[in-house]
Design brief:
Layout (H helix, E strand, L loop, with lengths): L1 E5 L5 H17 L3 E3 L10 H11 L2 E4 L6 H12 L5 E3 L14 E3 L3
Parallel strand pairs: 1-2, 1-3, 3-4, 4-5
Length: about 110
């Protein structure tokens, strides 16, 4: 199983969240975390991002720092057939859009 993580890169707090929480939790459940800046490749970056998003079983979008690229990646995931998206920027609450498999939580 694979999870694409869309989040701000290069900030100490988000990098620590990824390394010490998101990755550890996912790996403990036998889920491979995928963050595009941690993959070595020679592909066009946009194509690689889209392919990774579409091939993932689900995605996490951390909206901390409101990076436009994270919103874009969340939109790609939403537009994909599976559309499973976890938004980690807000406190837990039920999604009002029942057609979207969506969980909001503060990590």
């Amino acid at each position: 199983m694979k999870c694409f993580i869309a989040m701000a890169f290069g900030y100490q707090d988000t990098d620590e969240l990824y390394d010490h929480a998101i990755c550890e939790i996912l790996r403990s459940q036998n889920i491979d975390p995928v963050r595009v800046d941690r993959i070595e490749h020679n592909d066009a970056i946009d194509d690689r991002i889209v392919n990774e998003i579409k091939s993932a079983d689900f995605a996490i979008a951390d909206l901390t720092y409101a990076r436009p690229s994270v919103y874009y990646e969340a939109g790609i995931r939403r537009a994909s057939d599976s559309g499973h998206l976890h938004d980690s920027a807000r406190p837990p609450k039920a999604s009002r859009r029942r057609s979207i498999r969506h969980i909001s939580s503060a990590l």
